Amino acid sequence: MDTKPSENNNNNNAENLSPDKGKPAKRRRPLWLRLIKWVVVTALALVVLVLSVVGLAVWILTPKKLTPIVERVATEYLDADVSIGRVELTYWSTFPQLNVRVDSLSIVSHSLHGISNADRMRLPGNADSLLSFVSLQGKVNIPQLMLMKVELEDIILDRPEVNIVCLNDSVSNFDILPPSEEEADSTAMPDISFNRFSLPGGLKAAYFNAADTTDMKVEIVPSNLATVGNSSYTLTTGGDARLKIAGVALPPSVDFKFDGKIVWRSHQPYALGIENFDIGIGPLNGIVDTELDFTDDMEVKTFDVKISDVSVADVINWLPKEYVSSLKGMKTDLKVSMAMRLTAPYAVSDDALPSFDFSIEMPDGSLSFQQMVLTAFGLDVSGHVNGRNIDGSTINIKRLLAVGKSIGFKFSGSVSKLLSDPVVKGEFKGGVGFGRLPSALMDKLPFTLKGKLVMDAHLDVRQSYFDRLNFHKLKIDGEATLTDFYMLMNDTTGDIYARNATLKFGSSSSFTTKRGRQVDSLLTVSLKVDTASYMMDGLGLTGSDMHLGLGVSNKAASADTAVVIPMGLDISASRLRYVDMSDSSSVMLRSPKVGAVITRYKDSNKRPMMMTRISADRIRYRSSAGRVTLREPLVRLRLYPSARPRMNNRLGAIFDSITAAHPSLRADSVYTLARREHALQRRKNRAANASRPRARHDSTDLLDFRADKETRSLLLWWNASGRITAKRGRILTPYYPLRNVVRNVDISFDMDSLVIKDTKLKAGRSSLTVNGVISNYTNAMLRKRAAMNLRLSLTGDTIDINQLVNASFYGAAYAEKLAEGASAVKMGDDVSDDALEQQVENSAADSVAGPLLVPMNFDADLNMSSKVVLYEGLTLHDFRGVAMMHEGAIKLTDLGANTDAGRVNLNALYSAPTKNEMTLGMGLVLTNFYIEKFNKLFPTVDSILPALNTISGRINAEMVATTDIFPNMDMNLGSLSALLTIKGDSLVVIDPDTYKTISKWLMFKNKNRNMIDSISAQIAIENNQLEIYPFIFNFDRYKLGVMGNNDMAMNLNYHVSVLKSPIPFKFGINIKGTIDDMKIRLGGAKVKENMVVERVQLVDTTRINLVKEMDRVFRRGVRNARLRSLNARGRNHGDRLRMDADVPGDTISAADSALFIKEGLLPPPPPTPEESKEKKSK
Question: Where does the signal sequence lie (predicted)?
């Protein structure tokens, strides 16, 4: 058996045995265990020692011994009488806390003993009484006291009464502490803290200030709602002041509570801490943690308050009625939680505001007020307030929700830069039903709203962007929809309606140009409206299927507001209609389209240029003045500002001189100064010329083209050019009662001229092609007497002068009737074009021709030609001529045409600046013309020369005349001066039946040939007298000479000389009297052969002179030169024969008389009495 292992074990054991005792040695504990052991033992010894000392002190200091000691020390230390009923310390029963109880304490101040009797009379009777209470008890935590910390717990103050009385700022009853002295002992004070504090019996406090007579009493009583562990009280105020919090006067009775821990640390003797302090006022309850430092001045180191689950309804019910009277009837279950935390120490004496973080949270709840009912309302807001820089504060709206019958929206975002330039960023979704908004709100509005608005938008905006220089910086993306919107003004002066309108806006749009260039970062707005109407102050606008688009650059470079920001606009609609109820005018557009682009003018960054394109399928304008219709119009417009305003030479010189003297001034400022200087010079000139006679101007001699103030500003400072085209147009107006139609309208324009190209015009039965230029209309719109110029070429197929002239007369008469108060033609939308045309025609038929006035400020040069011209009963072919208008006159030059009746050539001057200054001068040449047509062409000549009605055939005639015109457009025959030459061959003089009778009586050779071989006569009219110069013509076997005169009343004085006849001697026939009472007698022949040869050739010369005179008057103007009357009798008054004077041979002999009796030309004389008796006897 192997025994080695056993031996080894034995050896080991032997080695562990103590050499002296033979027993095993005890093992030593580690050092750290021994240290812990001695620390614990020492601490326990100290605790036992402290407890023993405290217990011994409490056992020795019984209430009977302790009470007088405390009372004596307090009285000696304070400037007051201190009375204490009992002071008791309890330790073992409240171990490990030391309980202190003080009963019946009273402090009577001595600080008012030195005042005068007068001052004493101003104070209350109990002014010396400062403080009293029934009992005060609390607990001192002994373990904390061993750590040099005084922790007071469960402090209970029963029924304290505080009475504070102030005589002035330096004398009061609470000034009872002795002056402070420096302490030699630098032993650190222990930290002191208060855990709980309660007033089971309430508190009474009074404050009186003799300086301002403030008298206030406060009473705090325990609340019936107090719960275990919380101290809750009711605050009751009295006296002549009410308790205010944040400027709001609280009710006389206020429930409040406070409970928490107050901490004072010895190493910070001027610091005071409040931890987990539960404060409640009425329905408000919060937890406050703060740290205050009173070292130099009161400074709030930290401040943290949390208010949770406050009922909004309870707050409203708790506040005084005068503050919440407007919220009467509000019902809500909303609750609010708020928190605030100071982010930097705040000194109360600092002018700056505190800096803090805050949050407001309102869980979803309901709210109803009047007609507004919110089924859900919620709020979650946080932010930071920078007290030293309010502009650096921020507000973060995490969630703002409101859902109800009238409104519903949700918003989340942030607000910054609150004072300098508020910035709003966020997302908005919501809508509003206008018809269900609160009546309190709607009653304050001047209109009634109905409809619904829904909006979804992303915002990044600031206040400074909402102006004309920065609006392009707005960053708004979203959409707004308006449905069944209706707004009615309360005074029924207007309304707005939109069935469905959608507004889309964005700031990140882009597009590609036709040249392939990418244009991005655009601020765009688009509006789509299916049906809308607007009526306000008599102005109405309706439309359907309307679209509007707007885009503007939104890049960072756009921040320079001194440069032009490119912009684009596009507008289209299915139909638009504008109505002005004040004058019953309206404009209707079918399928209008508007495109506009604003860019920089040439290389200038500060001068904008707008290019616009406007088109429509149809445009119709209606007013009391007429109707205008255009089909497929197209307007292209280019608009840009002028470097300097338009002005006349004198004003321009003043402008240039001021610019040279002050080159830094802006153009508009220079223009204002120039106008003032120009006005001053004009006033001086007027004063100097006041004594000079001034021409009188009738109010009707000028067309007022002047524009209103806004248009004048545009004309002065802007340049415009463009082109207008239209497929067809129509104009119908009672001022020119014809159906006027234009086709292929092509008009180009700029600020000085308007160019018309190949535009077809049809007025009634007349059709023309118009080409030419209208110029100087800008000056005419800026200055009263500036003339508008027309240079037109009128080429026509047919021109009906009768119709055109009658339309002008009827239009003038219609205007005259309106001025006299007559009713206007109804031009309403309910009247069709055909019915309206009939009304216009009826109005024209009822009108009496009125004065056709020629405006002084209208210059025209019309080059006219037409294949066919209708005038009176004539049809003119190959019509050519020039019509000019200048300063109240119309001049017709070389108007010529061929007719079936002969050739016509006319020169005329019609002057009519006013209705009392109307004159006419004319020179007419007729070649190979039917005399019957001549009578129809000039019916006035027919009334003066009725004998012309007995002649027929072709004649050559020249006529010159001047006359005044009555306002009814009749000639003033009293002013008529005229010369007429008539030449003709083979003229039929008498109708065939009459001719047969006379041919037998006068023994004509050819009794079938009723014709004059030739005639050449001259006629003069002047001073109401018509004179026929002597002329001779052959008629069958007779040669006759005729001369004579008559006045306009047809008192005749004519002589017919029979120079050749079957009778072998010459004789004359004298005709006097009227047509109804004519006396004819025979006499000698007065017309001699040489008289016709010697007659003055007046007509041709006078016509040439008259044309020159008309040209002179036209060029100088009717105000400066007047058309002179013709000298119709020649330069020598002896040219006119004296019809009343006898000439040699005026009587005939007895033999001649017997021959006339024999031939039957004269009746035989009556028989004598003797011859009568002889016949009877036979």
Answer: none
